[in-house]
Amino acid sequence: MPIIWYTTYNIILPQTHHSRKDELLSGTIETNPSENSNWRRHKNACPFYRERWFPGNDVAAGEPMYQVFCMKGTPPITLEEQERCLRSKTCCWRLAKKQQSAAQQAATEETPSPAH
Question: Could you tell me the residue ranges of all domains in the chain?
Fold first, then answer.
């Protein structure tokens, strides 16, 4: 079962269920977001970023405005991370950053130190 991510107040939080009315409410994913037309892909966003809106929810009562799903399992945690997801059109920025740092580390290890 995939992890569900909600956002309210411009903060993205992991799936939770609370009994307090002013806290986040959880839901379920019954269909894979990549196969469901209710999950939208943004034109300039990461190819793995999906979002669905809940226009009937009451945000003032703590109900989420929309739900975010990452098909690579690296969903945004902060608003800044979400902005990077929305601007990363060709690949997951986190995975690209991870690959880049691994390549830099490998290059550093392979570079011979000058002999004195």
Answer: 5-109
Distance CA 7, CA 25 (A): 10
pLDDT per residue over 52-72, tens digit each?
Answer: 888 888 989 988 898 888 998
Is this prediction's pTM over 0.85?
no
86-106 tens-digit pLDDT: 999 999 999 998 888 888 888
* Tokens 């060709």 belong to residue: 90
Q: How far is CA 68 from CA 14, 77, 104, 111, 112, in A?
A: 10, 10, 31, 42, 45
Distances (CA, A) of 39 to 1, 56, 76: 16, 16, 16
The distance of Cα 7 from the centroid of its chain, to the nearest Å, equals 10
Neighbours of 72 (CB within 10 A): 13
Beta strands in the chain (DSSP E): 5-8, 11-14, 49-53, 66-70
Amino acid at 97: K
